[in-house]
Amino acid sequence: MNISARITDERVANVRCDADSLVVDLMDGRTISVPLAWYPRLVSATPDQRAAWEIAGGGYGIHWPYIDEDLSTEGLLRGAPASVRDAY
């Protein structure tokens, strides 16, 4: 039996938001799409504030400096919405 290891790279390649979703492209070609409503700070932000993101955490995180929001690819892959405590 031949078992081949899957090579994954969960670092952030690109981030975008539309009216309803946060979409994160990973370096390995996968795309994560989650409801924007899961992240109250992003929902409340202007489109320009949402577009002003930067890669953080060695490539495994996303930071929005104007709204002080930080997300990790690990949390996004787990499907973890923001906790109520983290919302504001």
Automatic annotation (TrEMBL):
**Protein name, per record:** DUF2442 domain-containing protein
